[in-house]
Amino acid sequence: MPDAAALPPIRIDLGSDTSTRPSPGMRAAMASAPVGDEQMGEDPTTCALEARVAALLGQEQAMFLPSGTMCNQIALLVHCRPGDEIIAAHQAHIYGSEGAGAAALAGAFVRPIEAPEGIFDGAAVRSALRPLRARAPRSRVVVVEQTANRGGGAVWPLAAVADVADRAHEHGLAVHMDGARLLNAVVASGIAAQSFGRLCDSVWLDLTKGLGCPVGAVLAGPRDFITAAWTWKHRLGGAMRQSGILAAAGLYALDHNIERLAHDHAQARRLADLVVQIPGVTLRFPKVETNIVFIDLADTGCAAPAVLHALRAEGIRLSVEGPHLLRAVTHLDIGAADIAPTADALSAAVRRLSSAD
Ligand SMILES: *Cc1c(COP(=O)(O)O)cnc(C)c1O
């Protein structure tokens, strides 16, 4: 493996949609933001962002937080007591990518359910429910990840969210939406964020994914939920001071960076259409509804890390998701001109590496 210092700079970064840099317009908005003490409710820019996101998500109130992970963890801390069970798709971020925070912090654990593309229905919730008995864990929350990141960015249809919410609510469970990429789902489906959000007891969106902000996420829910969430925000050290500098980026992104997500989706589709022309390369999730492409190399015989390194040597970054699986994510800093060179480099790497053994 070449050492990092010897590698060329990254020119096409498809590793994650978190790799965006704030644009000049966003930086200008941040620089001129009115600020105050967030913990005292005196930061006008943060308050404006919270009000705007609450309305966008069809909820009463919202709370600005440093990260999406903290949104998930605080929501679980509010919804769960120790020993409670959380129902989520087996590839969900809260299950595999948050340091087992549900267990470590809330004392709750995740019951992963098999769900192709990370999407399930009310019947799956019903069959995962525990009977009400002393020896059984209490089923407490269902998590809907919109879009489903490790489901290839699949969009939960509104009817599926409604079905899951009906079953959950019928049995006294809360519905939490991990909306890291909810706005990608909104743009791809044409369905308003509110329509998804109001079915949920808590819902958040990430500012640092497709929206292109440097920091932040916003968690929304009913007034009582947000009041309880504030205690955890303080406990976890997520309460801030002049956070308007950061919230201004969020407001700017909501004004400028939502509709353009359609461009990211189109580029992901183009990349998908090009890579499947490479012999042996297939798509793990052929639909490619949003900005995520899972590239399956199994039939080429190439190992994903080897291909990753070959691309990295060309200044192109993807991420490894399995022994033969790569992920490419499009975003604000990926232009139409970046797609064909990526597919060409992948084609050359696969050709070279599959003939090498
Ligand atoms: C990125 C992501 C998170 C966590 O968000 P951070 O802002 O990186 O903490 C949670 N859920 C999903 C689906 C994500 O993609």
Automatic annotation (TrEMBL):
<dbReference type="InterPro" id="IPR015421">
    <property type="entry name" value="PyrdxlP-dep_Trfase_major"/>
</dbReference>
<feature type="region of interest" description="Disordered">
    <location>
        <begin position="1"/>
        <end position="29"/>
    </location>
</feature>
<dbReference type="GO" id="GO:0008732">
    <property type="term" value="F:L-allo-threonine aldolase activity"/>
</dbReference>
<dbReference type="GO" id="GO:0006545">
    <property type="term" value="P:glycine biosynthetic process"/>
</dbReference>
<comment type="similarity">
    <text>Belongs to the threonine aldolase family.</text>
</comment>
<dbReference type="GO" id="GO:0006567">
    <property type="term" value="P:L-threonine catabolic process"/>
</dbReference>
<comment type="subunit">
    <text>Homotetramer.</text>
</comment>
<feature type="modified residue" description="N6-(pyridoxal phosphate)lysine">
    <location>
        <position position="209"/>
    </location>
</feature>
<feature type="domain" description="Aromatic amino acid beta-eliminating lyase/threonine aldolase">
    <location>
        <begin position="13"/>
        <end position="296"/>
    </location>
</feature>
<dbReference type="Pfam" id="PF01212">
    <property type="entry name" value="Beta_elim_lyase"/>
</dbReference>
<dbReference type="InterPro" id="IPR015424">
    <property type="entry name" value="PyrdxlP-dep_Trfase"/>
</dbReference>
<protein>
    <submittedName>
        <fullName>L-threonine aldolase</fullName>
    </submittedName>
</protein>
<keyword id="KW-0663">Pyridoxal phosphate</keyword>
<dbReference type="InterPro" id="IPR015422">
    <property type="entry name" value="PyrdxlP-dep_Trfase_small"/>
</dbReference>
<dbReference type="InterPro" id="IPR001597">
    <property type="entry name" value="ArAA_b-elim_lyase/Thr_aldolase"/>
</dbReference>
<dbReference type="InterPro" id="IPR023603">
    <property type="entry name" value="Low_specificity_L-TA-like"/>
</dbReference>
<dbReference type="GO" id="GO:0005829">
    <property type="term" value="C:cytosol"/>
</dbReference>
<keyword id="KW-0456">Lyase</keyword>
